[in-house]
Design brief:
Layout: H1 11-28, E1 30-34, H2 35-54, H3 57-66, H4 70-83, E2 92-99, E3 106-112
Antiparallel strand pairs: 1-3, 2-3
Helix pairs in contact: 1-2, 2-3, 2-4
């Protein structure tokens, strides 16, 4: 049984943080964050891209439950989904940058492949 990371936050704040990071990743196509946050964000973002590959109305509504901005949902289904149509998973990449100067947390770039 796998244990999810809690990030020392209540579940609603944790879900909101992940949703915000997924929205930013799909909007900007690259974000900089800690390695553990990048790993959790990657899991949700890959599911959203898989929904976009389906492209039907139900998939669009499911994606809208996670992604905050309608413009980002539109970009996901019109640009990002078709881009990965022939790829079976592995839509994102985590590149480690090293420790953050202030607190030493391991920093990474999460980007779309």
């Amino acid at each position: 049984m796998s244990k999810r990371r809690k990030f020392d936050r209540p579940s609603d704040q944790r879900q909101a943080m992940i949703r915000n990071m997924v929205t930013s990743l799909l909007k900007e196509e690259e974000i900089q964050t800690t390695v553990t946050r990048a790993k959790d964000t990657k899991r949700v973002a890959e599911k959203m891209i898989t929904l976009a590959k389906r492209g039907d109305l139900h998939a669009r509504r499911l994606a809208s439950r996670v992604i905050y901005e309608p413009a980002v949902v539109q970009k996901l289904f019109n640009e990002i989904g078709p881009k990965y149509a022939d790829r079976n998973g592995g839509y994102t990449r985590i590149l480690k940058l090293g420790p953050r100067r202030g607190d030493g947390a391991e920093i990474a770039i999460l980007k779309l492949v």
